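Most newcomers find our protein records easier to grasp once they have seen one. To make this concrete, we reproduce a full record directly below:

===
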Amino acid sequence: EVQLVESGGGSVQAGGSLRLSCSASGYTHDRYCMAWIRQAPGKEREEVATYDSDGSRTYADSVKGRFTISRNHARNTLSLQMNNLKPENTAMYYCAVDAGSCDPRFMEYWGKGTQVTVS
């Protein structure tokens, strides 16, 4: 059974930083895309950053230069370092993984999310 557990969310003031972590277990495919996806109340789901098994990474334009996605293979974790946070970054942040797609509409496994609030 694939399990993704997010942690690291919280409340910070604008300009502050948070580091989210996603602990993954039960996923055995060598090929994958892992992603951080967020959803704010009343807004569409938005893909924040992705990490592909080939090592490539992508970022939403709104977070480029401020957020960094990384993968610790030994610990089987996915992290998102978020710096210079803004109130518009307030959302529930989800970790997701899929064997073939980086599109949130089609990603198979999801965590339950961790809340980030920026004031």
